[in-house]
Design goal:
Strand content: 15-25%
CATH class of the largest domain: Alpha Beta
Largest sheet: 6 strands, mixed
Length: about 230
């Protein structure tokens, strides 16, 4: 079932950052977006989220998905890391899109927050100030927050940036586990080899773009390496 369909999609602000892209993200797939700095990775994510309009082409959503039903884990700023709220309050804020015009969270939303705190192994930290947590713990909190917004599709912008190797492995394990439960993943990563170990599809941006399965991407890399060796 197609959840996101891009047709001749070009992303950018004042100027285009990508050539026209055609791809279809189906439910349950795990997409990794890779490319050099400035190639348009984060801009592409923001376009998928509906935060900015496509520079060209079209982007449509299917399978009952719309931009209010997407979970987003952005890159953190220093100010955000020092956010003065408890773990529970941060996770619960992921339910904001479900509230409509209601001024308060309802019982179902509060239970959802508790469930996702438990799912991410954060129950012992629920009352702790978010600002006192380690970087890895904060990322797990933000992942739980994103899950409160959706159980369908998660969009992750460098979720392991700045984490130590052990914490990085743990974050990748958590994301893979969510995907195995049926959550569609779209993630930016600079750690290409580790990301490829779990993903199903690759979107490579830059001078040479690529869209396809991880197997097709590995074949293209092998061919490229062989071509370089023959020169």
């Amino acid at each position: 079932m197609a959840q996101i369909i891009a047709t001749d999609l070009v992303v950018g602000y004042q100027t285009p950052l990508t050539p026209p892209l055609d791809f279809c993200i189906d439910k349950g797939e795990y997409w990794v977006i890779i490319g050099q700095n400035g190639s348009g990775k984060t801009t592409t994510l923001k376009t998928l989220l509906g935060l900015i309009k496509p520079y060209g082409g079209s982007l449509t959503m299917g399978g009952g998905l719309d931009k209010t039903k997407l979970g987003y884990l952005p890159q953190q700023t220093e100010v955000q890391r020092d956010f003065p709220a408890s773990v529970y309050e941060v996770v619960l804020s992921g339910c904001l899109s479900k509230m409509g015009l209601r001024p308060f969270y309802n019982k179902t939303e509060r239970q959802l927050a508790r469930d996702n705190i438990s799912k991410l192994g954060l129950s012992d930290l629920a009352k702790r100030p978010y600002r006192e947590l380690s970087g890895g713990q904060q990322q797990r909190v933000l992942l739980a927050r994103a899950l409160c917004a959706t159980d369908s599709l998660l969009v992750l912008d460098e979720p392991v940036a700045g984490l130590d190797p052990a914490t990085t492995d743990e974050m990748y394990r958590l994301v893979k586990g969510l995907n195995q439960e049926g959550v569609t993943i779209v993630m930016i990563s600079h750690d290409v080899d580790q990301a490829l170990a779990d993903c199903t599809h690759v979107l490579k941006l830059g001078k040479e773009t690529f869209v396809g399965t991880v197997e097709q991407y590995e074949e293209s890399r092998t061919k490229e390496e062989a071509d370089h060796e023959s020169v």
